[in-house]
Design goal:
The protein has 257 residues and is α/β, with parallel strands linked by helices. It is built from ten helices and eight strands. Strands 1-2-3-4-5-6-7-8 form an eight-stranded parallel β-barrel, surrounded by eight helices.
């Protein structure tokens, strides 16, 4: 069964528009005794109630949406899996070691980007990534690397000790015509090699209700991590219904080619 991890970063984005510092209990922008809205923990519980298999959040260095307190609270409250997206930087690695999410997905991060723009350069960062992966594993955390569907990046992800790769589907989502078929071919090849090298395979970025079935030919998929499309749909139908609708779409997956 193809599993769904619901990324709730954009719930926090909306909250941060009003409350600049939602992490501190005594933040001046948050009245005493008041929970900043929308309530991130409630969103996570709604997604779980709808059948989500996990909750994904990205703790960025700039703290533009998810705050440290959010990750601690989610770790205590949710009953499924907590997937923490993060850059390979000492401060965030130390936080992950302390909080111990079920899974960490190491991603590239740039201050000026609106959202993650591509996969990790695992080859260039192999030395640091190998050390970080070992640290996280010692803390009992499963480690995934967010990578483009590139054969050499997949090989190196296995060499540095990752448990999973999460295939970046952004190029697939943005492609049109023959280009879309070419991107699917890359995803198939990457997933096949990852499986052969002992890696489990997740996927995400740019996936929507309309284009998700287009990757059902990709084999060995374990989890899709989807955020923006679900939160956007939730504006009109509510979060629980939006999650259920995505799960219905994903029920069509039969294991790929």
């Amino acid at each position: 069964m193809l599993k769904l991890g619901v990324n709730i970063d954009h719930i926090a984005t909306l909250r941060q528009v009003r409350y600049k510092t939602a992490s501190a209990a005594d933040a001046r922008t948050v009245p005493v005794g008041m929970t900043p809205e929308p309530d991130l923990a409630r969103a996570a519980l709604e997604a779980e109630a709808a059948g989500a298999h996990g909750i994904t959040v990205h703790l960025r260095e700039d703290r533009r949406h998810i705050q440290d307190r959010d990750v601690r609270q989610l770790r205590q409250m949710i009953r499924t899996r907590l997937n923490l997206e993060m850059a390979d930087v000492p401060e965030i690695v130390a936080i992950a070691e302390k909080i111990r999410p079920d899974e960490v997905c190491l991603v590239p991060e740039k201050r000026q980007e609106l959202t993650t723009e591509g996969g990790l350069n695992v080859i260039a960062g192999a030395k640091s990534l190998k050390q970080t992966i070992a640290r996280l594993k010692r803390a009992g955390i499963v480690v995934s690397l967010f990578v483009d569907p590139d054969i050499e990046q997949i090989r190196t992800a296995a060499d540095v000790g990752a448990d999973y790769v999460e295939l970046h589907t952004g190029s697939y989502a943005n492609a049109h015509g023959p280009g879309k078929a070419a991107e699917v071919t890359k995803l198939i090849a990457a997933a096949t090699l990852a499986h052969e090298r002992g890696l489990r395979v997740n996927a995400g970025h740019g996936l929507k209700y309309e284009n998700t079935p287009g990757i059902f030919v990709v084999p060995h998929l374990d989890t899709l991590n989807i955020g923006h499309a679900i939160i956007s749909r939730a504006v009109f139908v509510g979060l629980r219904q939006a999650v259920m609708e995505m799960l219905k779409v994903m029920s069509g997956y039969r294991g790929g080619t």
